[in-house]
Amino acid sequence: MKETKVIELEEVAIRFSGDSGDGMQLTGTLFSDTTALLGNDISTFPDYPSEIRAPQGTVGGVSGFQVQFGKKQVNTPGDNANVLVAMNPAAIKANARFLEPGGTIIYDSDSFTEKNLKKANFETDDPFTECNLQDFFKIPVPISSLTQEGLKDFGLDNKSVLRSKNMFALGLVCWMFNRPLDYVEEFVKNKFRKKPVVVDSNIKVLHDGYNYGLTMQHMTPSYLVHPAEIENGTYRNINGNHATAWGLLAAAEKSGLELFLGSYPITPATDILTALSERKDLGVKTFQAEDEIAGICSAIGASFAGDLAVTTTSGPGLALKGEAIGLAVMAELPLVIVNVQRGGPSTGLPTKTEQSDLMQALYGRNGESPVVVLAASTPSDCFHYAYMSAKIALERMVPVILLTDGFLGNGSEPWKIPAMADLPSITPRVANDSEEFLAYKRDAATLAREWAFPGMAGFEHRIGGLEKNITGTVSHDPENHQVNSEIREEKVQRVVDMIPDLEICGDEDGGDVLVVSWGGTFGHTASTVRELRRAGKSVSLAHFNYIKPLPKNTKEVFSKFKKIIVCELNLGQFAAYLRNELPEFSYYQANKLKGLPFTVSELKESITKLLED
Amino acid sequence: MTDVNYTIKDFKSENEVRWCAGCGDFAIINAVQRTMAGMGIPKEKFAVISGIGCSSRFPYYMSTFGFHTIHGRATAVASGVKAANPELSVWVMTGDGDSMAIGGNHFIHLIRRNIDLNVVLFNNRIYGLTKGQYSPTSDRGFVSKTSPFGTVEDPFVPGQLVIGARGSFYARSIDGNLKLSQSVLEKAAEHKGTSVVEVLQNCVIFNNGIHNAITDPNHRADRQLVLEHGQPMLFGAENEKGLVFENGKLKVVKIGENGVTEDDILVHDAMEVDPTLHLALINMALPDFPVAFGVIRAVPAPVYDVEMEAQIKEVQQTRKVTCVDELLNSGNTWEVTGNPNGSSKKCI
Prior knowledge:
The complex is a heterodimer of chains A (613) and B (348).
Chain A: E1 6-8, E2 11-19, H1 24-37, E3 41-47, E4 62-70, E5 81-86, H2 89-95, E6 99-108, H3 114-119, H4 127-130, E7 137-141, H5 143-150, H6 158-162, H7 165-176, H8 182-191, H9 196-215, E8 222-224, E9 233-239, H10 240-255, E10 259-263, H11 270-277, E11 285-288, H12 292-304, E12 308-313, H13 315-331, E13 335-341, H14 358-363, E14 372-375, H15 382-396, E15 399-405, H16 406-410, E16 412-416, E17 462-464, H17 478-493, E18 511-518, H18 522-534, E19 539-544, E20 546-548, H19 554-558, E21 561-568, H20 573-581, E22 588-591, H21 600-612
Parallel strand pairs in A: 1-8, 2-5, 5-6, 6-7, 10-11, 10-12, 12-13, 13-15, 14-15, 18-19, 18-21, 21-22
Antiparallel strand pairs in A: 2-4, 3-4, 9-16, 14-20
Chain B: H1 25-37, E1 46-50, E2 65-68, H2 74-84, E3 89-95, H3 96-102, H4 104-113, E4 118-123, E5 126-127, E6 133-134, H5 158-164, E7 169-174, H6 178-190, E8 195-200, H7 212-215, H8 220-223, E9 224-227, E10 234-235, E11 241-246, E12 249-254, H9 276-283, E13 291-298, H10 304-317, H11 324-328, E14 333-336
Helix pairs in contact in B: 1-6, 3-4
């Protein structure tokens, strides 16, 4: 037997790919968690169709999960995969263009039948040549038949047997990358604890896959990726939707309020509702409403009654909530609205990522209806920005829209767990002097009104969606409306004193090109700028998490650079906003609308071109 | 309860009431304020929530906590208020447009959940605040500004929706009958779960007299059946008429005719879980039947806000995670040590 070929890598990207019923999301997640536990930095990207089970074997039904992990910091799931695990021919076709030249393809040779090749619209019996993958290192493994062989004594029907084949693939990949199996075993034992035969069969197949790699060393390379050099501390792996949910929980605990979530299921935001529904132990009240409108309206009611109130949604849901957001603006109630953006318009691309709801968040309501807008930039910092959204809402009596996206929501990365004691304080503006209380009397500095809710004796008052005077009484006075409209805008602008300055990553005193990005593109823009700087280019990054108001030094930062390029996953919404807010600068744009994150290579290309022009 | 001792004045706000002279809403607010004054609940525990429409201006005229929200959504907002604080007495003031048209979805789902709210539905069968368009409770053929040749659609009967949504409480009153309104509002307030009180209300400007056939003093006794739980379903000037159930249908009979005695008359059971008879009573319409008033249905059912609180308490009794720090550190975590100069993720 030959020695195993050991390849030592700084970072590697693996893509698990198969039918949407093949369990690829679970396989990818388990591998990522195992890898994170070993101390690698990781970044993941689930990429799946919106159908639960698209026609089997077709390219449209391919579900993929890409994870990049490494020794250094990993900000993206990788433009292309170094290793592809393909459960059928359709997975080859769907992923051919996402493979790194010279990479490895492991595939279930049993599934490469004439029928399946036809389903994937291959014209010949050589899918690899058809996809120009001749130069890749291909490892055919009869995964289906080996799974059947391994489980022949388990008395399971064929369908149940084949459901375990993802575990074979996982076991094999774990061997290739030197990952232990104990985490996966624990997971399987826990998940199927009521079905011992399922536990045993899955673990058997997992080990079969691992052992296959071990015994077939002559043909499978093994990779070595050392743990990452990241800050000391306690870490866990977390995705953006969980981080958002937990950030809201942290804000509720810190502020001493109960957390209320009014929400309606919508991809890709549903996981926040799920994550908070699980937390009855922490007293969370989750209200699965009859529609998006009732989701936000119940939250507004809870806010009126003194809870930290939240509604979560995605683009189409935000559209439905528009009128109610206006009510929260007018009534000046604290409210957090989370929008996990997806491809639009209309139903658009529900499972794909995009940043095209920025204008909707800023302006998508009737009347002058200003709200604070924040955007998270990585899966784990959704925690911080959800927390800050709640802090701003509660301290400034204002609705806050938090923008995340499908890439952040579903993607995961290791996260250094913060301690509650280290998080900033949250002081809700609860009224305490009933003699002095007036519904719309404001703090001179922040313009925030006080919050008094039913149950507080002596504070009885009326508010509503009609324009009002200082007591909350309806007012149609023209001067009053002008003044109030300006105050509501100014109140949002004054949030600027709560937010940090914009950081320049790179040439702090200025340089040739400033890359401007916001929200979920951080990983890709940061990696791009890092690589260009290594190549000696004068390129810096200014990444925005606070959209409205903008950080107060924004103008100063922009003025230090010769050229500014705004990179975003839409047709130029943030660029248009910046042109409006800071018209004295010229803005170049890099835009993408494919339902996919940027790739580092395409960003490098755009920026290099700008440097040369 | 506490030693609160209120009069109707304690529930009036300083705001000038701006309904049209002669509007049925005046009588309804009077009944609501009297009811609240007599409930023995501290005033700060009341929250009055409304949507849009003439009736929805109601909170501004109350001295309680009040929230005038947006069209059709009062039921949804109030659901959040009650879930946030189940100790409150939460009232929803809504109209036939607000709750049967734009807010129809929230209305039925509120009832299905059985959240402990008191909904007062002002039914004048017209859009008043937008000046006279037909509403979802206007009769087929009704002529209005938006149906100059008559409507070609059938109306909703609010009580049918309540039953269809598995409602636990439904009562009907009429603006002019203050005593009846107060009586059913008191029962609605006592009921645990969603109580819907439909009040037939007169819009003096755009639909004046729409309920006259029912309220006409000369025929009132024959055209109204005021139901009392445990009492026979008798009506007429001398209580000489009654209802029997025959061949799966209600039937009006006269006592003394065809051998009918008072013993043959149906006795109202508002607490019967089977809604068959309640629905039949709701459906009664002129001219063949009197219109049913009073508490038609009041059955015990699990209450959403109570169940929600109980579930949280139950889960908390055996919880492993008691605070956010514990949550963040639960499950799979790992220690990174030995990288004193390790970098955070944010740098380039």
